Amino acid sequence: MSRDDKETSKGYLVGYGKPPAEHRFQKGVSGNPRGRPKGAKNKTPLKGSDRPTQDMLLAEAYRPVVLREGDTLIELPAIQAVFRAMGVAAVKGNRFAQKTLAQLVQNIEKEQFQAQYELMESFTEYKVKWNQEIERCKKLGLPDPQPLPHPDDVLIDYRSGSFRIAGPMTKEEKAKWDELIARRNEAQGEVLEYARLEKEEPEYAERYRDWRLFEQRIFDKINDALPERYQAKLEGRARVADNEEEDGDDSESEAA
After folding, report:
1. Phi, psi (degrees; rounded to nearest 5) at 47
2. pTM above 0.85, yes or no
3. Whose CA is closest to 87, among 75, 79, 63, 65?
4. Cα separation, 200 vs 202, whole angstroms
5. pLDDT 10s per residue in the chain (256 long)?
6. Spatial distance between the Cα atoms of 17 and 23, rounded to a whole number of angstroms
7. Residue 240 and residue 248: Cα distance in Å, rounded?
8. Neighbour tally for 11: CB within 10 Å
9. Domain limits of the chain?
10. Nearest-CA neighbor of 231 among 167, 171, 174, 169?
11. Are the CB atoms for 126 and 111 separated by under 8 Å?
12. What DSSP string describes 29-84?
């Protein structure tokens, strides 16, 4: 027992870090009944934490400035104007500008090449992985997995080092694509149906032909907008004479 501690009549000590029982926190009762002060959670962080110097530097770098080129005034970001002045100085023989500009360009090209290479490598691994998984599921009689993007939609040109995604990349995009393809397939069915009715009901052949051409245009508009892997060949296509216009309302096909 320290000299500052005092023993109460109930036998427990009272002193530093040992308040009397009547002043201790009670179980189930908040020690801060008024709660957190209003706005305490949204107080502005410390000045050093939001990097104001970097923000100011970037703002100045991209601030538009006006330059004169011959008789023309052009507006450029300040940083681009600096690079342009450096390029002019380099062309005029300034060795420091030549060395600095050449080094900057080399560094940027190197970084871009590295980023492009890593991205192509990632997409190549992605295609190999999912093609193997799809093949495995086929052998086991399992449903084909539907990764997004589909590996067949990842098109890589190893000669040029370029690549692109020719298909949906998200569930939302796939839902829209499925809706368009369903409408195209519906148009295919309508074209065949109207072709049949043209023959079976010749008295209404002209009407059925107009409807057939209308559905045919919808099919073509949707189909032509899709990548090659998703395209289909229209069966029962109606031939249009050179002097015959495909009349009809295009509003639905435009919406599609």
Report:
1. -55, -40
2. no
3. 79
4. 6
5. 555 455 555 555 666 666 666 666 666 666 666 666 655 555 555 555 567 889 999 999 999 999 988 899 999 999 999 999 999 999 999 999 999 999 999 999 999 999 999 999 999 999 999 999 999 999 999 999 999 999 999 999 988 888 899 999 999 999 999 999 999 999 999 999 999 999 999 999 999 999 999 999 999 999 999 999 999 999 999 987 644 544 444 434 333 3
6. 12
7. 14
8. 6
9. 64-165, 171-255
10. 167
11. no
12. S-S-TT-SPTTSTTPPPPGGGG-HHHHHHHHHHT-EEEEEETTEEEEEEHHHHHHH
Angle formed at CA 76 by CA 74 and CA 80, multiple of 5 degrees: 130
> What is the torsion angle, in degrees rounded to the nearest 10, for the CA atoms of residue 138, residue 119, residue 173 and residue 215?
-80
Written as six digits, the tokens of 27 are 């179980």
223 in Cβ contact with 232 (< 8 Å): yes
CA 64 from chain centre, in angstroms, equals 29
Q: Which two tokens stand for residue 76?
A: 């450029």
The HSE-up count of residue 217 (CA atoms within 13 Å, CB side) is: 17
Tokens encoding 248 = 């009809």
